[in-house]
Fold this protein.
Amino acid sequence: MQDITAPQGMKLASWTHAISQSTIQQLLAVATQPDILSFALGLPAAELFPTEAYAEATAHVLTTQHHALQYGMPCEILKHFIVQLMALRGVVCNSKQVFLTTGAQQAMSLLSRLLLDRYAPVLVEETIYSGILQAVEPLQPQLLTVPTDLETGMDLDAVEALLASGHHPAFIYAISDGHNPLGVSLSLEKRQRLVALARQYGIPILEDDAYGFLYYDDEPLPPLRALEEDWVFYIGSFSKILAPALRVGWMIVPESLISVLSALKEGSDINTATLSQRTIAAYLEMGQLPNHIADLRQAYRFRRDTMLRAMTTYFPAGTRCSQPANGMFLWVELPEMVDMEMLLKIAVEQKKIAFVPGWAFSVKRNHAIDRSMRLNFSCCNPERIIYGIGRLGELLSDAI
Amino acid sequence: MQDITAPQGMKLASWTHAISQSTIQQLLAVATQPDILSFALGLPAAELFPTEAYAEATAHVLTTQHHALQYGMPCEILKHFIVQLMALRGVVCNSKQVFLTTGAQQAMSLLSRLLLDRYAPVLVEETIYSGILQAVEPLQPQLLTVPTDLETGMDLDAVEALLASGHHPAFIYAISDGHNPLGVSLSLEKRQRLVALARQYGIPILEDDAYGFLYYDDEPLPPLRALEEDWVFYIGSFSKILAPALRVGWMIVPESLISVLSALKEGSDINTATLSQRTIAAYLEMGQLPNHIADLRQAYRFRRDTMLRAMTTYFPAGTRCSQPANGMFLWVELPEMVDMEMLLKIAVEQKKIAFVPGWAFSVKRNHAIDRSMRLNFSCCNPERIIYGIGRLGELLSDAI
């Protein structure tokens, strides 16, 4: 919670009394310091960015496209490439259903404002990515929550019970693959059941697929959007598969909603930076993204395995850990209670290591959350992962 | 007004029934076609973009800054350069008061959400930039309106009468220099009186200074923020002085509001594209922006004068026109009623010329609006301006 003090006598909108900057954003200042070994944030590995190719694409756009720096319409070529990317996820769509956004977060913000009336209910998991909470916060929604199983994902019995009892949330927020922060992916059976519930009760699903392309098993499961076209609003992003500094993402939505979303986006930031759109399109035209993603999958799989092995060695016996098939995060439940705030403070100050305490993602506090942490495995190289998990393990041995 | 049709049975937020994409955005599709001679939009002259220098700055950032493509905090160096830019506008501020945004439009959107409760009143001019209306639209505000004098700007007697009668708008929206669409700048006397009213009644002013750097007389007047620190929220943008394709703007606000704005922005799009921030900072470091702005002022002054002269020659006798000291727009009032919608249609289809009818900016319809149009003078070169004004004049001779 922030201390919000307007200049004397100035009145702010009423919802601002409850606003808070996320723990994640506050940790960004710490975690991006060069001497910090960070397991805290969802950062891609900086050394793997395709910087040279992207520089080449930018130079090409600025040299050859006369209006590269001008206002422009959403980039049609980019939309066509996104349709091709979606096919890799098993999703059939057309470019008129593609809506470009200033990152996945803007997609959540726009869809929240599109679907959610003030004070209306939304359905989220008890432990969930804080970005969706920030997107809905100005609308002061009623948060309906359901638990998550660490092996199969969202508790659909709880979802069905809520819907059957008459609750009608404006939407259900779901991360089918590489759940942030829990690292779990929805089982295929649950995917099918979830979209059936959405259809049956007429509830849209916001499917946040930021991590869908980063799968580490042989065959990824289809996202919800591959199973249901009308009731699933798919959210994708270039942040995790190309570069977060560009702030370009997309939605796949029913074509009939594009015009209202365009008006809402125009009022929010006019359009997504057209130079970034053009440059990403030029990079995609070079045809290197599929190979780049394959490289990321290989590197991140190895980092995940390295972190899991190191935890077996260095973390207290009885530590539970998710076994993520996708994404960037491990969810860790320690065998005993730990003062996570104190542990983080000591870890940062004495060992120069950062992580995120589990409660930072907690909508509804449950018993396990106070001994949980989220660890990112994509950002640090394997040597640093082993080193950092070792040091964290030492602190835990002292603390438990 | 759009035809908003959600998939069958899907409920959208209640405010969406009234949403509309702006006429400007609809015209963008027309005006950016290569064969159209456009006086319609606020486009900078594409041939004057500092493309080579910007390409050099981008290459420099991508080559030398290891984390250029990574998430990051708002760029401190860029904030310091903005403090220096503000000094050129006569504004004293420090970098802790600088808040980076995804263009000026996002500043309007964030400040609207910060200050405005649902259904609460805001004060705008009867004829005003549609972007502010789109920013407040989801909050369904009560629009209090005042007229604008084409030579001295906003009618402050009307503002004072509203405030004195007990209205308490969440903010007053003001464009002190190069008013969009009216082309007028506020007189110095009115600037002083407006900030005094803001202080007296405790009403924040959103000062949209997108055009402040583009002044064509010898000495520009100080913006409102130079006269009042607490009650004026200054909005600046790189779109008109550097390039709109980057979507980077800024606010100068009281430091105590930075944390709540950060939380609100984080929920909206996490942050402004850090690659763009870094690249603009690198471009500013090259020291070329002041000279670039001087070049723009010279070129645009000549285009403004060319358009004014051509209108004297080709437009009907009795045509009234603003004499803008700043910005990109002329406001034209024809001596007689014209069916503007039909005129635009004919102009685009037969002459390949686009403009914006005055009513596109009209909150409260008045008599003159139906014979008014906004013409942009920055985008086309002088030969095309003369040619286009000549063809529009011919159509007007036929129509009147």
Summary: The longest strand of chain B covers residues 232-237. Chain B is about 40% helix and 15% strand. Chain B touches chain A through 88 residues (CB under 8 Å).
